[in-house]
Here is the input.
Amino acid sequence: MKQNNDLGNIDERLILTRDNNTPAEILTRLAQDACYNIRQSVALNPNTPAEALCKLAEDKNRPVRKYVAMNTSTPTEALCKLAEDVDWDVRVSVAGNTNIPAEILCKLAEDENLFVRRVASENPSIPVEALYKLTNDTNGYVREAAQTALSRYRDVCSRI
Here is the structure.
């Protein structure tokens, strides 16, 4: 980990991480910053290079991994790895990412954690077959979300 003090103090580095015009090479450097708040913010930036996001997906800090999982620019390989994270809230973020492959989303729809299953059911990319399974989930919270999503799907289909 690096301090990156040549890029400014923590506040100035945070500003860089949130700026969509920050060059990729600066974001890559900031992805290795010693301050986890900087790494978290880099993880959310849609312009962070794929290679940096893949490295951040392995960060020891859970919120950093969570924010990588939320980033729709995160490469599929990193999302697949994060879908198996030990922390359920990281898996929740993967389940909510609209760029997650359908087969991974189906696995998350069978996750042991009800919040992961619920968010998976709300993802517009979830296959209908997985939604049908979730309408029979053991948890009412998950069943309700799946039924609502299935109703929306039927409404859209009826308009076509």
In short: The chain has two domains: 1-82, 86-160.
